[in-house]
UniProtKB/TrEMBL annotation:
One of its GO terms (biological process) is protein import. Its main location: periplasm. Residues 1-21 form the signal peptide. Residues 37-47 have a biased composition (Low complexity). NCBIfam families: propeller_TolB. The Tol-Pal system is composed of five core proteins: the inner membrane proteins TolA, TolQ and TolR, the periplasmic protein TolB and the outer membrane protein Pal. They form a network linking the inner and outer membranes and the peptidoglycan layer. It holds the Pfam family TolB_N. PANTHER family: PROTEIN TOLB (PTHR36842:SF1), PROTEIN TOLB HOMOLOG (PTHR36842). The keyword Cell division applies. It comes from Sphingomonas parapaucimobilis NBRC 15100. Residues 53-164 form the TolB N-terminal domain. This is Tol-Pal system protein TolB. The lineage of its organism: Bacteria, Pseudomonadati, Pseudomonadota, Alphaproteobacteria, Sphingomonadales. GO terms for cellular component: periplasmic space.
Amino acid sequence: MPRSLLTLPLTLALAASAVGAQDVPAPTPQAQPPAPAGQQPATQPANGQEGLVVDVEGGISAPMPIAIPAMPTSAVVQTAAGTTDVVGQKLSEIIANDLRNSGLFTPIPPAQLRTVSFPEVTAPAFDYWNGTGAQALVQGYVRANGDGTLTVGCYLYDVLAKSELARQGFVVTPGDWRRAAHKCADTIYTKLTGEGPYFDSRITYVSETGPKARRIKRLAIMDQDGANHRFLTNGQSIVLTPRFAPNQQSIVYMSYIDKRPAIYVYDIGTGRQRLVVQNAATTFAPRFSPDGRWILFSMAQGGNTDIYRVSSQGGAPQRLTNAPGIDTGGSYSPDGSKIVFESDRSGGQQIYVMNADGSNQQRISFGGGRYATPVWSPRGDLIAFTKLGGAFRIGIMSPSGGGEKLLTNSWQDEGPSWSPNGRVITFQRSTQGASGKADVWMVDLTGVNERRIPTPLDGSDPAWGPLRQ
């Protein structure tokens, strides 16, 4: 059961059981964390005007220097997460890694940062930090509470203007301390870029091991940075194309249980799974609607493959397409009014858009070559896809088909999935040859900031979940 929120003036409170996070509503965003030692906060910007802004396009070539010293503690206390001083150091490292991985920030190396005292958190030594070359400063603190929880404070400063830009506080159980770091990084990223947050989110994917002809494929879940990894299935049945439910409590995927491809929903909390469509035909490529009421999927029968939808609770499927050929890969627009999908009805794989009820089906891809696995951005402004032809590449286009742009240029990149803020895409990258392997990668909309996400084994079919609450 979820823990009750502590009554503290904090912007965000998180609570979790020892075995897994339980999401809880956030208090109002106007609240501020208490100063750690009775200090007055640094001067606030006048009239809400801030001088620091990161250009999400140009910032990639000139990342903002930012200082993130280890977070001090009011008293060194042993907790289930370790001593509070060690937790403070780890929190700063995670924040720095998140911001570095965005490609928009260059954290000053820890060896070049001095130790920050607890009272100094809200009274920064701006002259010193200016000398490090940092334009922005992140300071915070960790405090152990009597009930076993931790309070984490997070402050963002403009070094040159000597002003405070943002502050937030978090209450977490020791098992959930990493989320406080991701939430702090989200606060900084959002404040300095104007973009939405995405660090406090998870990815589900297919973990693979063994020779290519006999791969063991297990459903797995992890934080967006690869931490808190765990396997959800044992590998006795092949799993493919996992996708989160909007409430993050379950995952829909295809599995070969009973030797037949079929769609199942896996409950993350209980580990139970249930068959979605009671049908002898092959069902695959599932995805939830934005409101969680429907599951979109493809079903092959009678020599044809079409897109259907079914209530997420089960029931009779409703057919949405009926053109000859293969229609698959459906993805809803954020408002649930439209669906983008791929079809070979014109002779080769292309991207089409239709209304949610299946009406008004129109082709939007005309750039030459073939297109597959389209998925709508959570911002609604773009559609990501796999471009086929020689190599497989990840690309984006507008919902009308214009502005096509390829973001990657490797041998086989496929299966894009959007971050919660619509700024970054995760995908599968495979290497050539009999010993080739698949890994989980990310790329942002510039196509410049590209990196691999560490996983214990090979990884395929990644899907990004919504921002956690």
